[in-house]
Structures are given as structure tokens and as C-alpha cells.
Amino acid sequence: MDHKSFVLKWVDAFNRGDADTLAEMYAEDAINHQVAKGEVQGRENIKTMFRKEFSAAKMTCIVENIFADGDVGILEWKDPCGVRGCGFFHIQNNQIQFQRGYWDKLSFLKAHHLPMPENP
Q: For the whole model, what pTM was predicted?
């Protein structure tokens, strides 16, 4: 599968809140590093992270751009609340080896009416 199609498949699973399908897209020892939150390593831990996040907020990823070059897929996104971000996926053998995401945590928390951290 080409990397643009792979990222679109990831977006579809994300928008359905399907942590199981998302987790299967990651290598067993993958790393998901959301800069606003930190690193999560391993497929099972990534699945747990998605389940926790999907239970906290209804999230929708609206694709603005997808780029692919070599083993990298890049997703530029927004959500219906106006939060914007981007994700970089290192993909090998149709599995995510490493993902890094950039987005503003405080804007996300405000937009989704979630509690603010004690020390932002």
C-alpha cells in the first residue's frame, strides 16, 4: 500500500475511534511521540493510549494535506473545533515504526472542554 493510502486508512480508523485497528497499524516495538504529551512505546501501550484518549473526547481528524516521501508519510490536519496539527509517520512494511505529532495541547483541552492541567 502506498504511504498516502496508508495514512488515509489511519485517519479512517482514528475517526471511528477504533483503537484496535489503529494499534495493528503499528509495529510491535513502535514509538508514538506526541510532543504535547510524550512518548509511548509498544503496540499494546499505543492501543491503551488511544482507548484512553477516545474515552476522554470525541476527536475528528480532517485531512488538510498528505505528503509521502520514501518511508515517510506526513499528515497535516485540523479538527472541527479549529485545532490544527501535523503528524509524521515512519512506515516500513505497512507498519508504523515511529510517529511524531505536533499540536497545541492547551487549545485542544479548551476546545473539548477538558480539565486544564495544574501547571500548564
A: 0.87
